[in-house]
Specification:
The complex is a heterodimer of chains A (112) and B (478). In chain A, the strands form two sheets. Chain A has a four-stranded antiparallel beta sheet, with helices on one face. A two-stranded antiparallel sheet of chain A has the order 3-4. Chain A contains two helices and six strands. Chain A is an alpha+beta fold and 112 residues long. With 478 residues, chain B is mainly α. Helices cover 65% and strands 1% of the residues of chain B. Chain B is built from 14 helices and two strands, in the order αααααααααααββααα. In chain B, a hairpin with a 5-residue loop joins strand 1 and strand 2. The longest helix of chain B has 51 residues. Classes of the chains: A alpha+beta (112), B mainly alpha (478). Chains A and B meet through strand 3 and strand 4 of A and helix 9 and helix 10 of B.
């Protein structure tokens, strides 16, 4: 089992969710995040004082899938989320030791 | 001969008696003036009373509405305006400061402060004639407002007394103890507000232009009494309490410009009660003040937004609403004395001037006047009081008459350069009273209870540390 974490533009969330549904992914968790890679922030002005905002709102997705799905999921996310500009985001892949369905105790791939 | 004469006299007497009896409601047996004339006089007197009652009813209705409008300026107008400008963790404590004034100043006013401001006394302070609102009832006091009950005048003035200290809270937002603030405001209302109100608006007041003060300062709705005193006191407080933790390095942007926006709009509408209501009647002077107020606000909005657009490349919502407030402040002393076109000039000047006070000057001197009480009210009020001396026109409101009753020019442009001296007198007295009074009170309260919250309270936020509450509880479970 593999966890895929994707940090994407907030405006691409709907497109990515739709793309994942189309390839049959049923479980997803979404976080509201702030952050940056190489993307510059912006400045705001309040009564003449300048505020540099460098933590930019992003959407973070966590999906855990069976190993044979990993490539498909990553390709789907990239296709839906890419604009070609700095700020598109990143995907991180990691191993999952165990997954358990709380409702009935299923373990492993059948819990996903 | 005499017999015929006597009969003629008797006939005349009988005829007179018949006429007297025939007249409605007249029962006098003596030879009275024509019963018809008495009846007409009574009718005219009754009509005159009815007209006076109608005018009174119109004026009183208007003034009660104005009183409500001015109260709305504090709650929720100012509460929202200030609340939106602070960080989320301090929103309730900021609003609470304004709300507390509505409660505390009201009681103080009824017990003693109204008397100190408006009862007869000396040039500087009123007496105790009206303590516990004794003598303040349905009967008008013609020196103040001849067509409304004195009680209406009292409640209207109370709303001014409430908002003035509330304005000061902007200077020490996010770091002052609630208990210390409450004590400070009680003392400030007695030692600074009441004397200033008495000098400008009270009988025998040194600066009272309407009632023959030694230095007749034209202040229609409180540019000196409300804005200069509160704004300058705010500056003293900001300097005495020192800046917030982390100021100016840590970012402290407003947590909700939306709340401030709503507050500012409520202030603009409420200000019609503040300025137009200062005519104390529902006639054409109220209209004139209403119109001047509105035009001043509009011009100042464009002044501030325009200046910001040029300097920063974008006109901000916060800038626009701040400009409107600055214009309203500046037009406050002038509202019932200037034409709409003059109001536009005053507004434009205030919008631009206050913009620079709040951006350049504040940053240059590094004082933490958190919500710009001095930059907008102190500076705007001073500018407005001066410009009142420039633009006041007897055509709008004839204030000064010579010994023979001829109307004299009011302001500089009309030909009365000397009025600027009187305006300066009011301005200087307001500044000095505010500085000295505030310093003394701060020292006393600091010695008694301490003014500033401890550091960990300030970091946690005053809503939690002083009031045990959170403003927004959006993470609560469904």
């Amino acid at each position: 089992m593999t966890k895929i974490e994707a940090i994407i533009q907030v405006s691409k969330l709907d497109a990515v969710k739709d793309a994942l549904q189309e390839i049959g992914v049923e479980g997803i968790t979404v976080f509201e995040a702030r952050g940056h890679g190489r993307q510059k922030g912006h400045t705001e002005f309040y009564r003449g004082r300048e505020y540099t905002v460098d933590l930019i709102p992003k959407s973070k997705l966590e999906i855990v899938v069976a190993d044979d799905m990993v490539e498909k999921v990553e390709q789907a996310i990239i296709a839906a989320a890419r604009t070609g500009k700095i700020g598109d985001g990143k995907i991180f892949r990691s191993r999952i030791d165990e997954a358990i369905r709380i409702r009935n105790g299923d373990r492993g791939d059948s819990a996903l | 001969m005499s017999g015929v004469f006597l009969v003629a006299v008797r006939v005349c007497l009988i005829m007179l008696c018949l006429m007297a009896v025939g007249a409605q409601g007249q029962t006098s047996m003596q030879a009275s003036p024509s019963a018809q004339t008495i009846d007409s006089s009574a009718k005219i007197a009754a009509l005159e009373q009815a007209v006076a009652d109608a005018k009174s009813s119109g004026d009183n209705g208007w003034m009660l509405v104005c009183s409500a409008l001015v109260l709305m300026m504090t709650g929720p107008g100012l509460a929202l305006f200030y609340g939106g400008l602070v960080r989320k963790k301090n929103v309730l404590s900021t609003m609470m400061q304004s709300f507390a004034m509505m409660a505390i100043v009201t009681l103080l006013w009824g017990l003693v402060a109204f008397s100190l401001a408006f009862a007869p006394g000396n040039s500087f302070i009123g007496g105790l004639h009206n303590v516990f609102l004794r003598g303040v009832g349905a009967h008008p006091d013609p020196d103040y407002a001849a067509t409304i009950p004195l009680q209406t005048f009292m409640i209207y003035q109370l709303m001014f007394a409430i908002i003035t200290p509330a304005l000061i809270t902007g200077a020490f937002a996010e770091r002052m103890k609630f208990s210390a603030m409450a004590v400070f405001m009680v003392l400030w209302s007695l030692l600074v507000y009441a004397p200033m109100a008495h000098m400008v608006w009270g009988k025998g007041g040194l600066l009272n232009a309407a009632l023959g003060g030694r230095f007749p300062c034209l202040d229609f709705a409180g540019g000196t009494v409300v804005h200069i005193t509160s704004g300058v006191s705010a500056l003293v407080c900001a300097l005495y309490l020192k800046p917030r933790l982390g100021y100016p390095k840590w970012p402290m942007p407003p947590h909700s410009v939306v709340l401030s926006f709503i507050g500012a709009c409520l202030l603009w509408v409420g200000w019609f009660g503040f300025n137009a209501g200062s005519a104390l009647s529902a006639g054409s002077l109220a209209t004139s003040a209403f119109v001047a107020t509105h035009f001043g606000a509009a011009a100042a909005t464009l002044g501030w937004a325009g200046a910001e657009w040029l300097r920063n490349g974008k006109p901000s919502a916060l800038g626009a609403i701040s400009g409107a407030v600055a214009g309203l402040v500046a037009i406050t002393p002038a509202a019932g004395f200037v034409s709409p076109m003059s109001a536009i000039v005053i507004g434009l000047a205030a919008g631009i001037f206050c913009y620079f006070m709040v951006t350049k000057v504040k940053n240059a001197f590094r004082y933490d006047d958190s919500l710009d009480a001095f930059g907008v009210h102190g500076a705007g009020g001073t500018l407005g009081a001066l410009l009142t001396g420039v633009f006041a026109s007897s055509a709008v409101n004839p204030m000064f008459k010579d010994a023979r009753g001829n109307v004299m020019p009011s302001g500089l442009i009309e030909g009365n350069a000397h009025q600027l001296v009187n305006q300066l007198a009011g301005i200087v007295i307001a500044w000095v009273l505010a500085i000295v009074g505030t310093l003394v009170i701060l020292k006393i309260v600091d010695a008694l209870i301490g003014l500033r919250v401890p550091e960990d309270h300030e970091i946690q936020g005053l809503d939690l540390s002083l009031h045990g509450e959170e403003g927004y509880y959006w993470e609560s479970p469904a």
